[in-house]
Amino acid sequence: MKCIKCENPALNESDFCAACEEKELSGIGGFLYFPAINIIFAIFSSLFSSYKTMTILISGYNFLGELRILMGFEFICFTIIFGIALYTSILFFKKKKRTPLFYIILLVFTSLFVISDLALAHYLYEIKLDYNYLFLLFRTMIYACIWVPYFIISIPVIFQVASLLAALTHPGHIVIYAPGGSFPCRRDAS
């Protein structure tokens, strides 16, 4: 098999030769600029939101009443989103194999947070949802609906999820995936 760029002999299990594959993997390409920007934005916005939420909690603790519970929930979730986004950014820019899995976790957790936060605010505290809140919900869901399937199509993510599920459901077995193989194999841990 020949390299699709320079016609030199391609590496095993690749469409590129060694030099072209190094160039191909050296930078972020195509649509992956959007997740990169989103990860950086998620880090800064969740850090800022954590700070603002904590400031409101501390300064208005006596005046917030029952809203303290919602504010505490938001602070905890913003902190978790910050941690996941920071870890995902490290994986993303080091081009680790677990990046798609953690990016999916970040998107799903952020979507669930937005849904639960708006539902709690509306149903428990009777806060009226205006256009800005609904736009936030719509934007978050559309972004997740686009990028989660994109990263799920990536074969390594499928097998990481399968391995995680197998480890949870069958503690004595390890699911392995050999590149080039058509199906994951199951073997005993011993």
Shape: elongated
Biggest sheet architecture: 2 strands, antiparallel
Radius of gyration: 22 Å
Distance from first to last alpha carbon? 38 Å
Number of discrete helical segments:
7
What percentage of amino acids are in beta strands? Answer: under 5%
Placed side by side, the strands forming the largest sheet appear as 1-2
The helix content is 55-70%
Order of helices and strands: HHHHHHHEE
Q: How many structural domains in the coordinates?
A: 1
* Strand count: 2
Give the class from helix and strand content and strand pairing: mainly alpha
Q: What report would you give on this structure?
A:
Strands 1-2 form a two-stranded antiparallel sheet. The protein is 68% helix and 4% strand. A hairpin with an 8-residue loop joins strand 1 (173-176) and strand 2. It is mainly α. The model is unreliable at 177-190 (pLDDT under 50). It is built from seven helices and two strands; from the N terminus they run αααααααββ. The chain has one domain. The chain has helices spanning 18-24, 33-59, 61-64, 67-93, 99-124, 131-153, 155-169; strands at residues 173-176, 185-188.
